[in-house]
Design goal:
Elements: H1 2-10, E1 18-20, E2 23-25, E3 28-31, E4 34-46, E5 49-58, H2 65-70, E6 75-81, E7 85-86, H3 87-100, H4 104-124, E8 126-127, E9 132-137, E10 141-146, E11 149-156, H5 158-169, H6 176-182
Antiparallel strand pairs: 1-2, 3-4, 4-5, 5-6, 6-9, 7-8, 9-10, 10-11
Helix pairs in contact: 3-4, 3-5
Length: 185
């Protein structure tokens, strides 16, 4: 009996939270009064720098990027900063990822709302190490959350949120292994 108890203690917990570079990412959370589940989590690196730990929450887990982006209901991109990044650098990285996965015409159509998003991020001034940044899709709007508090006004349009998702899940993701991790594959 003692051996069985010892073996049970050694087994990993099933359904527990993910951990990326020491950052705990819960297996479930709530967005817009709905439960969402962690689809996957991973590490964003740039050159040899560890930039942030990231998780992606959706109503229903899937390893298919297109299905994930088209899923109805709330979603959350959760980012936990592992180093300081200026608002300008953060904004430029987002725009670079969007441009890589969209035509010029699509980027032009998103431009007014991308400017709104950039202004919200600029208000934060700097994404500091340890800061929690969530990009929530409420089912109607994109809401930026910093350390659990809404920052800026909600920005309408599912196409904007889908464009954000494509930064990490598109045909030209910012990092291939991060895309795989977010898709749980």
């Amino acid at each position: 009996m003692k051996v069985l108890w010892f073996l049970l203690l050694l087994m990993p917990l099933v359904g527990g939270a993910a951990e990326v570079e020491g950052v705990k990412i819960d297996d479930k959370t709530r967005v817009a009064n709905a439960d969402v589940t962690l689809n996957g989590a991973g590490l964003r690196k740039r050159a040899f720098f560890k930039v942030y730990a990231m998780g992606l929450y959706v109503p229903q887990k899937t390893s298919n990027a297109a299905q994930l982006m088209d899923q109805a209901g709330p979603k959350r991109i959760t980012i936990r900063m592992l180093r300081d990044v200026s608002a300008d650098a953060f904004n430029e990285a987002l725009l670079e990822g969007i441009r890589a996965n969209h035509s010029e015409a699509e980027v032009k159509a998103l431009e007014p709302r991308l400017k709104e998003l950039s202004a919200v991020i600029a208000e934060v001034k700097e994404a500091k190490k340890g800061m929690a940044i969530d990009l929530d899709w409420t089912g109607a709007d994109t809401q930026v959350m910093v350390n659990g508090k809404p920052t800026g006004k909600p920005i309408p349009g599912q196409d904007l949120y889908k464009a954000l998702l494509k930064i990490w899940l598109g045909d030209k993701p910012v990092q291939d292994d991060l895309k795989k991790a977010l898709l749980g594959s």
